[in-house]
Amino acid sequence: MIQAASLLAAAEGANPLLPHLYELVVGVFAFLVVLVVVGKILTPRLQKTLAERTEAIEGGIQKAQDAQVEAQALLKQYKDQLAEARHEASRLREEAREQGAQIKAELREAAQADASRLIKAAHEQIEADRRQAFAQLSSEIGRISVELAGRIVGESLEDEVRQRRTVDRFLEELESTNAAVR
Length: 182
What we know:
Structural class: mainly alpha
Low-confidence stretches: none
Helix content: over 70%
Order of helices and strands: HHH
Distance between the termini: 177 Å
Strand content: under 5%
Largest sheet: none
Oligomer: single chain
Mean pLDDT: 83
Number of strands: 0
């Protein structure tokens, strides 16, 4: 019991919050080992990994910025090409419109020329037909008038000279009557 009493007395004199010396030495030694491992091995690896990630992120940001600048340049180029294409299309439409108007005018002129030619040919044909009809009517009227005059006068108008004078006189009277009526 003495021993127990001495232990109890010794235990009463020791502070329970303070660790024993060997625990303190082992704890400090373990702390230094952890500090060395973390400081010499783990920290450089962490810093290296963080630096690589930082570089990757900054490189990605730079690539994104470069891609954005390139995309904007391409967009501007496409817009310029589109504007040029629209201008070219507008110019081509205007040229087509002008060519269409020119072709239309040429066709109109050709149609008018054809119409004029046809009208002129028709007038000439009508005039030729009128002359032919007038000549046929003149000879027929002359024959009928000679026959009628021969019946009225009672003498034969078979003499060609007489017949011609009578027909010419009759036609002149007929033309003067027609001219007065017009």
